[in-house]
From TrEMBL:
<keyword id="KW-0275">Fatty acid biosynthesis</keyword>
<keyword id="KW-0479">Metal-binding</keyword>
<dbReference type="InterPro" id="IPR009078">
    <property type="entry name" value="Ferritin-like_SF"/>
</dbReference>
<keyword id="KW-0444">Lipid biosynthesis</keyword>
<dbReference type="GO" id="GO:0006633">
    <property type="term" value="P:fatty acid biosynthetic process"/>
</dbReference>
<dbReference type="GO" id="GO:0046872">
    <property type="term" value="F:metal ion binding"/>
</dbReference>
<dbReference type="InterPro" id="IPR005067">
    <property type="entry name" value="Fatty_acid_desaturase-2"/>
</dbReference>
<keyword id="KW-0276">Fatty acid metabolism</keyword>
<dbReference type="InterPro" id="IPR012348">
    <property type="entry name" value="RNR-like"/>
</dbReference>
<dbReference type="Pfam" id="PF03405">
    <property type="entry name" value="FA_desaturase_2"/>
</dbReference>
<keyword id="KW-0408">Iron</keyword>
<dbReference type="GO" id="GO:0009570">
    <property type="term" value="C:chloroplast stroma"/>
</dbReference>
<dbReference type="GO" id="GO:0045300">
    <property type="term" value="F:stearoyl-[ACP] desaturase activity"/>
</dbReference>
<keyword id="KW-0443">Lipid metabolism</keyword>
<comment type="similarity">
    <text>Belongs to the fatty acid desaturase type 2 family.</text>
</comment>
<keyword id="KW-0809">Transit peptide</keyword>
<protein>
    <submittedName>
        <fullName>Uncharacterized protein</fullName>
    </submittedName>
</protein>
């Protein structure tokens, strides 16, 4: 990136810290799929019962919903790829893995 454009990105860092980074949800507050799925550690009978109950609850969902769900799963699976690509851009590159710049913080894997 030309130095004059990089200078613009660097000049926006204080604004990023104040306006963009507060939008990140703390990892502890992010839900995980396991919170909504049957728990196999409760034993095979309980697990099978919960799987059957879940299957009954989703019978009425439309195909569009499942298309969206699969698309979201693919997107989630590719998040590390997106982070790696973004990390190649001047102005947000994190060469150390611990850069304090807003771009590196935003794209960090704990986002």
């Amino acid at each position: 990136m030309p130095p004059e454009k990089l200078k613009i990105f660097k000049s926006l860092e204080p604004w990023d810290f104040e306006n963009i980074l507060p939008l990140r949800k703390p990892v502890e507050k992010c839900w995980q799929p396991i919170e909504f799925l049957p728990n196999p550690s409760q034993g095979p009978e309980q697990f099978e019962q919960e799987v059957r109950a879940l299957s009954q609850r989703v019978l009425g969902l439309s195909d569009e919903y499942f298309v969206m769900l699969v698309g979201n799963m693919l997107t989630e699976d590719a998040l590390p790829t997106y982070q790696t690509v973004i990390n190649t851009f001047d102005g947000v590159r994190d060469e150390t893995g611990s850069c304090p710049c807003p771009g590196a913080i935003w794209t960090g894997m704990d986002s």
